[in-house]
Amino acid sequence: MASSMLEQMTPEQVFLVKQAMEEMDRHYDEAKHMLRNAEDGRSEWHSTRGSAHYAVGLLIRNGEGDVERACAVLDEVLNLQFDAPDEIFHGTFKTSPQAADPPRGGYPWKRFGPGFAYYVTSMLEKISDHLAEELGAECEGRKNVRRKDVEEALARAADRVIPPVWRSYDPNWREFIACAFAVILEHFEPRFPRELVRRMDEAMIKAVTGSIDRRLSDAVPMNTNIELMHLFITHYYGYRYGNEAWIRHADHEADRFLEEFAEFNTLAEFNSTTYYGVDLTVLGLIRKFARTDRFKAIGHTIEQALWETIALFYHPGLENMAGPYARAYEMEMTAHSSMGVFLYLAFSERLKHLAAVNCETGHDPMIALVGVDVPEHVKPKLIGEPEERMVNRQYRELCERDKPGENRFVCTATAWLGRNLMIGACSGSRNTNGQLHPATMHWRSDDGGRYSLRLIRREPESSWNTHLRGYYVDAEASPGKLTASVTLETGKALDVYFEVCGPAVTAAGVTSSAWSFPGLSLHVEAAAPQPIVRERDGCVEIIYPYRPASQEAVSHMAFKLEVTH
């Protein structure tokens, strides 16, 4: 049998690769040569990005038939790349072979300047508002026209002409798959047929070209994790293909990134375990595969400073990071993140439980390959007894749906970490993204149960994970206390609510002035409408309705939550 990279890996790296491959092998579709998409529950669909990561794992393992399977997988991934030089999605990959193609020919995006995408979105929002008003007036007395119905109808019509980002294509698949291909070409190129290497190189030329066009146009802004991947792939493939223009672009963008980073030594996707996991992976790629000392030094500076920030907000007892979160899906660090994997690599068996399978496990073979580089002076802060402390850090956010040049606001994050409780808060943000979590709590009960509280919003009976304008929160954390001020400047009806999750939480202990949950009691002062309390999906929701059409509607709410036990 041919040698495997596993033979040169540490026990921790071997565990990560084998665990990930056991999981991905279960989802492999032999007929399609792709992974089924287990991440979002659509197992009848297949995952292009997941399949690229599977190929990395197959080549590391190098068992019987693995190289042949990897070649078949890569052929299918390559078949799903968009080759459309005039379109905004050129060089990216379909998220799944089952996904519909985006519309072509109706959006000459290269003719427009930076910010055009913002203006189109803003214009459509305003048009739908006025259209709802006019239709409502015309139909008065016959049929009520719902604003949301008008918005959705107009959006559907626009989506048939202007390729809707995230819905018809994902621009970030360029960077994710290009990073996986870099690892593959760096380590395993000699194992491949020449024709497959040729196809991969052609695909990477398209991917990097599209990535650079996107960066220069700023039509779809890059969040931190994508920006770091962009730096790496333009640098790596620039040297692979001897493309001096790409190399200059990568060097310029890396210098600019470092200059912006140096303002506060923090990232725009601040305190996000989901995206910190990707950031650390890419910084590891730079550490391992960058071609110049200067580029490696930039990556090293950012990687070391990122670990210092992580240590400030990480609670070893709760095994989680305190809020606030500039972007987050989950409150639990191990639910949608690779952070536990990096901690396991740094501290071995004692933190092995943090590396359990989750929706990010497909990245683990690549993480095992690049390893971890935690500064020695930071390591004691990540293990042992938690140290009670107040933390205050600033960061400059990216509001990706706002006008370029006017979408980078300075935010202040405060956090208090106690023995079995931590509180996080953010002020200054004007982000429209529902993934912003500006007011949070985590705690542990005496029997070891772990709990979380977050302040979020949604349109009634809709998801919180949307973009909404005219809703802002300024919050502050202090020892045993969380305060939050909510500003409402929107014509949309919203539910402003606290969600409390954990074992055996019920609505029974919730009154207008006191909330009691396992392990935590709070005195509550709320300058807000009377709350509606309900249990939903194993959590408790304390909902303060904002209904702008009502005479009782308020444009401001204020909350103070103070720990009493």
Strand proportion: 15-25%
Q: How far is the first residue's CA from the last residue's CA?
A: 62 Å
Helical proportion, percent range: 25-40%
As an assembly, this protein is: single chain
In short:
The chain has helices spanning 11-26, 48-61, 66-79, 116-138, 147-159, 173-188, 194-217, 224-241, 244-261, 273-289, 293-313, 339-347, 364-370, and strands at residues 28-29, 34-36, 46-47, 314-315, 320-321, 389-396, 410-417, 421-427, 439-444, 450-458, 471-478, 481-488, 494-501, 514-517, 520-527, 532-536, 539-546, 556-563.
Describe the protein in words.
This protein is α+β, with helices and mostly antiparallel strands and 565 residues long. 37% of the residues lie in helices and 19% in strands. It contains 13 helices and 18 strands. The strands form 4 sheets. An 8-stranded antiparallel beta sheet has the order 6-7-8-9-10-13-17-16, with no helix packed on it. It has a 5-stranded antiparallel beta sheet with strand order 11-12-18-15-14, with no helix packed on it. A 3-stranded antiparallel beta sheet has the order 1-2-3. β16 and β17 form a beta hairpin. The longest helix has 24 residues, at 194-217.
